[in-house]
Amino acid sequence: MSYRSSNYRPGCGRTLLSFLMGAALLIVGIKIGAWKPDILDDTEYTIGKTVADFLDSRPVIAIDAGHGGDDPGALGLVDEAELTGETAEALFDLLEADGRFQPVLCHEKGTTATIQERYAVANDAYADLLVCIHANSDPESSGSGFECYPAPPGRKYHPESYDFAEMLVEEFSALGMTIRGENGIRYAYYDDNNEKYLVESSNSLVFTDPSFGMLEKTKAPAVLVEQCFVSSESDLALMGGESGTAAAECYYRAICRYFADQLEDQPQSDNVQDSENTDSSSTTEESTSDEQVYQPVELPSDE
Ligand SMILES: [Zn+2]
């Protein structure tokens, strides 16, 4: 089902759809109530909930923790699945406490789920944004840093995905993470032999080879993040340790910025500090590392 126009703005299409469907259901509810007073109570309850669900125009944020269950992901000082699961849950809690978002986990921490099952959760929830949380590992323990992969050029949601990727780079850079490659944003593709290859974001050519399944199949702007190296002690310290709480706050601030226009008039929950408005969220620190020479990296088999 596709109802978003090409000049899609986050949440707008769903807001209109929600309004129309809510109005239609409300009319049906009134008619049923008038004709069948004996079942009015049950009907009102069911329809009332449905109307409320459809009228909830808060952005739906799908959070996909890479790996889990039978698949530990990359191995290091902590398993990738453990770190990404903790980060995803911490991000879910931040968004839920904020009150202006509808967060959805593509799968529960510690459970096994296929790519197909995970993007189905995002699509069934009519996600407005998908963030896939992953981490790299380096057997030599020398690798470190952050990189992320938006939906590539030529895809419907590439522009919005790239915008969000830039916000993520700024947030993780401000946290002190080394930004890998040219600007921390790359595109990943699989060739005919299912071998993965990476392209820096300065290459805006449209490749027909498929990218990550989560990015290709989710009907929303999406970014897959390799937030750190689980083999790097310093990276993990910046993430907030195994709990990933500092990383979760980076995602949270980037999400608040991405939806800033839409959130303008929405009240934030009283029990949350207005952390996205702090100065640190909008400043971009230069990477402390020297210019890095890009070398193709064998990424974990996460897709
Ligand atoms: Zn992974």
Summarize the structure in words.
The protein has 303 residues and is α/β, with parallel strands linked by helices. The protein has 2 domains: 44 residues; 222 residues, Zn-dependent exopeptidases (Aminopeptidase). Helix 3 links the parallel strand 1 and strand 2. It binds zinc ion (ZN). The site of zinc ion has 7 residues, from loops.
Helical fraction equals 25-40%
Please tell me the CATH architecture of the largest domain by its name.
Answer: 3-Layer(aba) Sandwich
pLDDT below 50 for ≥5 consecutive residues: which ranges?
Answer: 1-12, 26-49, 273-303
Terminal residue distance: 25 Å
Q: CATH homologous superfamily of the largest domain, by name?
A: Zn-dependent exopeptidases
Label the overall shape: globular
Find the CATH topology of the largest domain: Aminopeptidase
Largest sheet properties:
5 strands, mixed
Strands ordered across the widest β-sheet: 2-1-3-7-4
Gyration radius (Cα, Å) is 21 Å
Mean pLDDT: 80
Multimeric status of the protein: single chain
The structural domain count equals: 2
| Count of strand segments | 7
Report the top-level CATH class of the largest domain: Alpha Beta
Order of helices and strands: HHEHEHEEHEEHEHHH
* Secondary-structure-derived class: alpha/beta
Provide key terms for this protein.
single chain; 303 residues; alpha/beta; Aminopeptidase; 2 domains; five-stranded mixed β-sheet; two-stranded antiparallel sheet; 9 helices; 39% helix; 13% strand; globular; binds zinc ion
